[in-house]
Amino acid sequence: MSCPRIEVDLSKIRRNTRTLVKRLGPRGIGVTGVTKAVCGHPAIAQAMLDGGAAGLADARISNVQRLRAAGMTDSITLIRTPMLSQADQVVQSCETSYNTEISVISALAAAAIRKGTVHGIVLMVEMGDQRDGIRPENLAGVAQQVMQMSGVALKGIGANFACLNERAPTTSQMAALNALANEIEGACGPFLKIVSGGNSANLPWALGEHATGRVNDLRLGEAILLGVEPVSGDQIGGMHTDAFTLVAEVIETGAKPPPFPIALIDPTRERLRIVTPSGASARIILAMGHQDTDILGLSMPVGSTLIGATSDHLVIGTARPLPTVGSELKFRINYNALMHAMSAPDIEVKLLGDPPTRLSRRTQGEVGHLALV
């Protein structure tokens, strides 16, 4: 079996999605499954849809194109402001996109007219994350400009939280987003179909006892894939946290002697000093490194500790009996480690459990590095 590899339990992704859909549905909130962390992997995206996600979303047009090439026809939204240079590709592959710049929206409108279609626009508003977004006081003006354009249709507004500044949204921020939705409708006329209240970090708010108001959509990736709430890192009750497992092969074991003394310059004394590290330790060296994943995002096996890593090697210490060369070690991973591993060219993606119920034979046959067991 190939190593390194990432094992994906599709049934757990499906169940995580279904759990969130059932909890958020009575609150009037639908789930959009975000596939960016898995690079638009069709089988994983289909597991989200099978679990009840209303649609899919991604931040990169290349991932959306991968989904389309696999034969997926469900609604897909681009949730990063489109690049001006990719306007035609966005209109070709996405029904809707999140936007902050009039120049980009104008380009999307022109592309849609050339294609003979109407492209949906969701305006992203800055609510405190200080990443992307239109300032609230400017939102109505931008919305009015969109309303005057042919080729595009204003579908809604959205906000982002806990990405750049890692702060969960407050009740007052969410109330302000609700007020903005009402304000835009009053200024522009049409009913806003989408009021997207954010991402997985919004789940504590969305599942709280207070009213959720106009918010009717959450863009969920990390919560579905890893079963955790991003800000705290805590497991969401009833959710699977082990849908993904990273597997690496042992290529060397044994103890290492202390390194030779190293002459270092002490900048405060301007003299040489000798640094002698601690003694020998039992080590395991695996064929995986920084080029494959975010090493700091790995949970070490029981009884093992991280010593360090290079581009192609992972070194861990252990107090347990040493494994044999050629054996495998398994690691739990966080969101950053998942993103890096899924985009690494040398990591095979191995699908476990039942295949998605609606995944076509064409999809199964065209996905690279894919195996069902």
Question: Can you give a write-up of this model?
Answer:
This protein is of the alpha/beta class and 373 residues long. It has helices at residues 10-24, 42-50, 61-69, 87-93, 102-115, 136-147, 171-188, 203-206, 222-226, 335-343, 361-366; strands spanning 5-9, 30-34, 55-58, 76-78, 96-99, 119-125, 152-159, 194-196, 217-220, 244-256, 262-266, 271-275, 281-286, 298-299, 304-309, 314-318, 328-333, 348-352, 370-372. Helix 2 links the parallel strand 2 (30-34) and strand 3 (55-58). It is elongated.
Distance between the termini: 12 Å
Strand content: 25-35%
| Beta strand count | 19
- How many helices? The count is 11
Rg, Cα atoms, Å: 24 Å
SSE series: EHEHEHEHEHEHEHEHEHEEEEEEEEHEHE
| Mean pLDDT across all amino acids | 88
Largest sheet: 9 strands, mixed
Quick one: overall form?
Answer: elongated
Which structural category do the helix and sheet elements fall into? alpha/beta
Low-pLDDT residue intervals, each spanning 5 or more residues: 270-280, 360-373
Helical content, roughly?
25-40%
In short:
This protein is 29% helix and 27% strand.
Helix and strand arrangement:
Elements: E1 5-9, H1 10-24, E2 30-34, H2 42-50, E3 55-58, H3 61-69, E4 76-78, H4 87-93, E5 96-99, H5 102-115, E6 119-125, H6 136-147, E7 152-159, H7 171-188, E8 194-196, H8 203-206, E9 217-220, H9 222-226, E10 244-256, E11 262-266, E12 271-275, E13 281-286, E14 298-299, E15 304-309, E16 314-318, E17 328-333, H10 335-343, E18 348-352, H11 361-366, E19 370-372
Parallel strand pairs: 1-18, 2-3, 2-9, 3-4, 4-5, 5-6, 6-7, 7-8, 18-19
Antiparallel strand pairs: 1-10, 10-13, 10-17, 11-12, 13-16, 14-17, 15-16
